[in-house]
Design brief:
By secondary structure, the protein is an all-alpha fold. It has 2 domains: about 50 residues; about 30 residues. It has 3 helices and no strands. The chain starts with 5 loop residues before the first helix and ends with a helix.
């Protein structure tokens, strides 16, 4: 895609003013800015929630398996000490 030069940008601005009117453009820009702010804050909140979420079922299963292996090793070591 070609870069837009100053003349193309002026033409786009004139077309926007003709389509929407000079009064509605600032309101439209303001509402787009507000929407972007809300979107960013929601994405940040979702990201933080995902990071602080409890471990997945697979992670919990892996941790339980590791703990079970540790307990079996401890039990085996205790049996060896008693015999």
């Amino acid at each position: 895609m070609a870069d837009l030069g100053p003349s193309e940008l002026i033409i786009i601005a004139v077309v926007l003013v003709l389509l929407f009117g000079a009064k509605k453009l600032p309101d439209a820009a303001r509402s787009v800015g507000r929407s972007l702010r809300i979107f960013r804050s929601e994405m940040t909140a979702a990201h933080q929630e995902a990071e602080s979420a409890p471990p997945s079922t697979e992670d919990q299963a892996r941790q339980l398996e590791e703990r079970a292996a540790q307990l079996r090793a401890q039990a085996a070591a205790q049996r060896e000490q008693h015999t």
